Amino acid sequence: AALILWDHGYEQVKSLAAEKQKTVRDWALAALVTAVAIYLYPEVGLPEDALGVLAQVEKDFELPDAMRGKILKQRIDALQRLNRLEEAQEVLDKYLAVAPKDEVGPVLRGLFAAVIEDVKRLVGIDREAARAKVAGAEKVGERLRKWLEANGDETKAAQIEGVRFDLAALYMAIEDYER
User: Fold this and answer.
1) CB-based contact 147:104 (threshold 8 Å)
2) pLDDT-derived band of residue 128, with 50, 70 and 90 as boundaries?
């Protein structure tokens, strides 16, 4: 609904004074970002619709880094819910470039967990496909490990070992005993 209202009123916004245009654009952006968050609620479950709104937001608004980070996080969340994990990993690079360091850890953890589950699911179905996805898991796991080393709390040593353990378990699952 927010996107429809934005599209419908966009021409009217152009006729406003510059200060009012900024205010209306800020409100519209906040409404659209909130709509995406609602689409991503498990009870609502509309991640494909969320991606459409995010594409429109990225097209229509100049986003400061903090807001760009939030938008990219939402895109990663939507792609995870759609099990489009390779795409989520591609967006991760852009996210890491603009996101505040204290917000990066949960995103890395979530994506790492999703990739691990995807590989585990594939092992029994298609070992070669699972083998191909382990490289992506390793890449995300390595980023998480580095983030933990630089930003982790007093439990970071245990968390780093957990990442290493998860990666080792994946290699064992695909019968790659050389790593």
Assistant:
1) yes
2) confident
